Automatic annotation (TrEMBL):
Keywords: Signal. Residues 1-28 form the signal peptide. Residues 39-151 form the Filamentous haemagglutinin FhaB/tRNA nuclease CdiA-like TPS domain. Pfam families: TPS. This is S-layer family protein. It comes from Nostoc sphaeroides CCNUC1. It comes from the Bacteria. Gene3D superfamilies: Single-stranded right-handed beta-helix, Pectin lyase-like. The lineage of its organism: Bacteria, Bacillati, Cyanobacteriota, Cyanophyceae, Nostocales.
Length: 875
């Protein structure tokens, strides 16, 4: 905290800044007439400049403890010139202010003939030209602040230029009391300090226009304020650090035209070892045009950090990069971005990797609004990405993204990876998006489109990393993907875990139809694939998209587990109808396919979509287990199929209804190449539900094999309608368990004994009343039959006249005793009760109680009618 005297000085500083602003405007169009001109504010302790054609040597100044103060009206270094500060022994900090109205132009070399730190303060701006250089043994701070504070001892102000009081302590703060001017670095030669030092540029806006900043093993900080405020300054030996308060408006920071900030050398560039720390802080931070920020670790010490904080936006554009990589034996540095919005475009990258035995650093992104990655560079060779990777024995680091919305499109990727030559493990990829995650499309390459997406991949011997996603809505479309796959020799693959509180939606293919949208865990080597877990309210797989656990090598396939509390919909195929919407586990190698487990309210599979477990190698197909309130298949299928291995089992637990329409299929088929393999079993458990199909639509439930043993079909339901057991498939809706060349399977149907179909008589399509004559038959022959047709005509009492009203009959209660009906094996026909034949009545008689009874065996002599006959004339 400042004392009252410092507070008074602070208000004086604010008042004086108005006069300084007026002077700056008045002299804005004037060029610097002199290079270095001391002012008279230090009295007898004023700076002394000794000039020669290309050298300005600066002597004098006010000494306060270990601090040396200089004050100038103008301070510039011309092209090819040098400005060198001399100081007596014991000086640690040289603090220089510029009190005139012009900016400082450093076009030559600025140096210190000692290891002291150099501070340059000019509220009117500072520019380093293309050939500017530093020759400083200590650290360097350039700022457009109005003053530097010294704890409670006072201020050294460029706006209120008084003689410094007893300022013997280290500088502790940078004070801004107006809209600060910018600092610009155009030095392609580079502003470079000795190893282990700090280089700080504090504006106003800070612009690196092709300029370079480099401190081996040191620290670089860029930042600025857009208004009044104080930036803390901490000095620890030769290490200078800034601390920005949360309640101040920040200025912008930009790196353009290939600008570079580094605290180490790039891989393969330079021979010295190094690491260091970099911090960039502003309102908007832009890294563009191939610019780079490097905080690599090439030595035997732990890596430093690269931190970018922007209150509004960080954008990395035009093949630019932020790197925190390690090429040594120690842990790599961490890369952190805190902002409102992060944009990565045009093949730019943010990366932390390890290329030796050291552990890789982490990449942490916290963006309160959104993170957007898109596109490739101009040549299409490099895609925009956030990545941690290992190409050595060290493990790759974590990638963590916390944001409101994540959008990855145009071939961009967020990934963790291990290279083919590595033995280290891949890193964890963790995404938390409070609103949504959207993975969209592929790169624009027609020959080899790169899918956009999230990837945890392993190509070496180390275990791949896991991919974990937590969001409200997760959407993958137009060929994008999310994958955790083992492409190397690791024993096991990574896990893909997706939790979306409302929706998971996978849609379609890439524009050229070559790349399907989807979720994938896979293995192509000797290791096994990992698990794929989805938890959501609603899952939609549409237009050829897929969810898959696949192995093409020796390893076992991964499992797929889906829990969708409301519904799952698989619908349609790709535009060319070649790729169905798919939920699958599969193996094409010697390993067995994984299992598939689904739990949901309503499961719908239609228009060519499939749920399948398959093996096209010698491995066994996985089992499929579904638990749902209702299951509807309309031109859809649930299958398990192998070419030579044993078929997988299908287990369906249905609460209410299983509906099969238009050629739908539930089947296990083994040995399609006629090389053996027993058929899998199908179990359908719906004790309180119904199984319904259209008999003529050829929807089937089958457990078949070719040379192996046929499978078993076991169904328990409250009723089965429109589909029935047959010994072999037909064009009707069938239930079969057969083997073309092997032992037949078995079918067991367990339903209540009451069959609403039994005893039914097919009614004519034309109402029978329309066939009854409206008049009497022509006489000439006797009629001995009595036929009643239609809904009316028979009176309740024989003494009543004939009436067209229908007779109401009370309901009766059926016998509640219910027995199970079981069909035998396919070699036997199921037993069905034969209904009593229905014979029409030909007359009536009175029984012993005087009741009228209709009978098929009426007496030959009819009763005499008690009504007069209707008179009919013959025509």
């Amino acid at each position: 905290m400042f004392s009252q005297s410092l507070f008074y000085q602070w208000w004086q500083l604010r008042l004086a800044s108005l006069l300084a602003l007026v002077a700056a405007i008045a002299g804005a169009n004037e060029s610097a007439l002199a290079q270095i001109v001391p002012d008279n504010t230090l009295g007898q302790e004023s700076s002394v400049v000794i000039s020669s054609p290309n050298l300005d040597q600066i002597n004098g100044g006010a000494i306060r403890g270990a601090n040396l103060f200089h004050s100038f009206k103008e301070f510039n270094v011309k092209e090819g010139g040098r400005a060198i500060f001399r100081n007596p022994p014991g000086i640690e900090n040289i603090i220089s202010r510029v009190t005139g109205g012009n900016r400082s132009e450093i076009f030559g070399r600025l140096g210190v003939l000692s290891s002291a730190n150099l501070f340059l303060i000019n509220p009117n701006g500072i520019i380093f030209g293309p050939n500017a250089q530093l020759n400083i043994g200590g650290s360097f701070l350039a700022t457009t602040a109005n003053a530097i504070g010294f704890d409670e001892q006072g201020l050294f102000s460029a706006s209120v230029p008084n003689s410094p009081p007893v300022l013997t302590v280290n500088p502790s703060a940078l004070l801004f009391n107006q809209i600060a001017k910018s600092i610009t670095n155009q030095s392609t030669t580079g502003l470079q300090l000795a190893a282990n030092q700090s280089l700080l540029l504090v504006g106003g806006d800070v612009n690196l226009e092709g300029g370079k900043l480099s401190v081996l093993n040191g620290r670089v900080e860029l930042g600025g304020l857009a208004g009044e405020g104080t930036v803390g300054l901490n000095i620890d030996d030769k290490n200078l650090r800034l601390s920005f308060p949360d309640n101040v408006a920040l200025a912008d920071v930009s790196l353009t035209k290939g600008a570079t900030v580094q605290t180490s050398f790039e891989r393969g560039v330079g021979s010295q070892l190094g690491t260091g720390n970099i911090q960039v802080q502003g309102r908007r931070v832009t890294i563009a045009d191939g610019s780079k920020i490097l905080a690599n670790n090439t030595g035997a010490e732990p890596g430093g950090t690269l931190t970018v904080r922007a209150s509004e936006l960080v954008e990395v554009l035009g093949a630019s990069s932020l790197l925190a990589e390690t090429y040594g034996v120690e842990t790599g540095g961490n890369l952190t971005i805190d902002t409102g919005k992060l944009i990565i475009r045009d093949g730019s990258k943010i990366a932390a990797g390890t290329f030796n035995s050291g552990q890789g650093g982490t990449v942490t992104v916290r963006a309160s609004d959104s993170v957007e990655l898109s596109g490739t560079d101009a040549n299409g060779a490099n895609f925009s990405r956030i990545i941690t990777q290992t190409d050595g024995a060290g493990n790759a680091g974590l990638v963590s993204i916390e944001t409101g919305q994540l959008i990855v499109q145009g071939g961009a990727q967020v990934s963790t990876a291990s290279a083919k030559t590595s033995s280290g493990q891949g890193g964890l990829l963790l995404v938390k998006a409070s609103d949504s995650v959207q993975l969209i499309g592929t790169s624009t390459s027609a020959d080899n489109p790169i899918p956009s997406g999230l990837f945890a991949l392993g190509e070496g011997s180390g275990k791949p990393g896991d991919l974990t996603i937590e969001t409200r809505s997760f959407i993958v479309r137009d060929g994008a993907r999310a994958s955790a796959s083992n492409l190397g020799s690791a024993q096991s693959g990574g896990t893909l875990s997706l939790t979306a509180s409302e929706l998971v939606q996978l849609i379609g293919t890439s524009a050229n139809g070559q790349v399907r949208s989807g979720l994938l865990v896979g293995s192509t080597g000797t290791g096994s694939a990992g698990e794929l877990i989805i938890k959501t309210e609603k899952l939609q797989v549409l237009d050829g998209a897929f969810v898959s656990a696949r192995t093409v090598g020796e390893g076992r396939g991964g499992s797929v587990m889906v829990n969708a509390s409301n519904s799952i919909e698989l619908n349609g195929t790709s535009a060319d109808r070649q790729m169905p919407s798919l939920l699958t586990t599969q193996t094409t190698g010697v390993g067995d396919a994984g299992n598939l487990t689904i739990e949901t309210g309503q499961l719908t599979i239609k228009n060519g979509a499939q749920i399948t477990s398959s093996s096209t190698g010698i491995g066994r197909a996985g089992d499929s287990k579904v638990q749902a309130s209702s299951l509807s298949l309309d031109q859809g299928s649930i299958t398990s199929q192998t070419t030579s291995g044993n078929g997988g089992n299908i287990n369906l637990s249905i609460k209410d209804l299983l509906l099969l329409r238009r050629g739908s299929e539930i089947s296990t088929t083994a040995g399609t190449d006629q090389k053996g393999g027993d058929g899998g079993n199908i179990t359908i458990n719906a004790p309180n539900g119904f199984i319904v199909a259209n008999p003529a639509e050829n929807s089937d439930i089958s457990a078949n094999a070719f040379t192996g043993i046929g499978g078993r079909v076991d169904i328990k339901a409250n009723g089965i309608y429109g589909i029935e057991f047959r010994e072999s498939p037909t064009l009707l809706s069938d239930i079969t368990a057969s083997s073309e060349f092997g032992t037949q399977g078995t079918v067991e149907l367990n339903t209540p004994d009451i069959d609403p179909n039994n005893g039914l008589v097919e009614l004519p399509t034309i109402p029978v009343e329309t066939k009854v004559a409206q008049g009497c038959y022509s006489p000439g022959y006797a009629q001995n039959r009595f036929v009643i047709a239609g809904r009316g005509g028979l009176p309740p009492n024989p003494k009543d006249i004939i009436t067209p009203d229908a007779v109401q009959v009370d309901w009766v209660t059926l016998n509640p005793n219910i027995d199970n009906r079981k069909s035998p094996s396919v070699s036997l026909n199921p037993i069905k009760p034969t209904p009593e034949p229905i014979v029409e009545a030909t007359g009536w008689v009175f029984n012993a109680k005087g009741e009228l009874v209709f009978t098929a065996d009426a007496p030959t002599k009819p009763h005499e009618s008690w009504q007069s006959p209707i008179s009919c004339r013959a025509s």
